[in-house]
Amino acid sequence: MTDRDRDRDTSGPAPADAGGPEGRPERRIDIAGDAGGPVVAGDHNVVIDAQHGSTVTLLMEGRRPRPVRRDRVALLPRRQHAPLGRDTDLARLATAVRDGGPVQLWGAPGVGKSTLLRHAARTLTPERDGVLFLDAARREPEDLAQDMFEACYETRGYAPSSPELRRLMTGVRVTVYVDNADFSPEGLRTLMDAAPDATFVVAGRDRSLLGDGTALRLDGIGRAPALDLLARELGRPVGAGAEGSTAGDLWETSSGRPLLLLRAAALTRLEPAGTGALPRPAEVGDLLPLLLGRLDAEPLRVLRLLTTLDDADLDIGHIEALGGARDTDVLCGRLVDLGLAEQTQRGYRAVADVVPALRERDPEPFSVEVLCEHFATWIARPATTAAQVEQHARALEVVAELAERDGRPELAVRIVRAASPALARSLRFGVWGRLLDLGLPAAQLAGDRQAVAYFTHEQGIRSLLTGRRVMAAVLLTEAAVLWRQLGDVHGANAAAGAHQYVPSHAANAQGTLLQPDGGASHVASSGPSAGPSAPDPSTAHAAGAHGTAAHPPGTSTDPGTTAHTTAAQHTTATTHTTATSHTAATTHTAAAPHAANAGAAKAGAAKAGAAKAGAAKAGAAAHSAGAAHAGASAATGAAGTGAAGTGAAGAGAAGAGASMAGASVVLKVVAVIVAVVVGRVVISQAVHSFAESRSGSSSSSSSSDTGLAGRWTGSDGATYEFDASGGGYVSHGRDACGQDASTEFTGSGDTYSAERPIYDTTSGSCTDLLGEATTTITLSGDSAKVTTTMTKTYQQGVQCFSCGTLYLTRQQ
Question: pTM score, two decimals?
Answer without folding.
Answer: 0.66
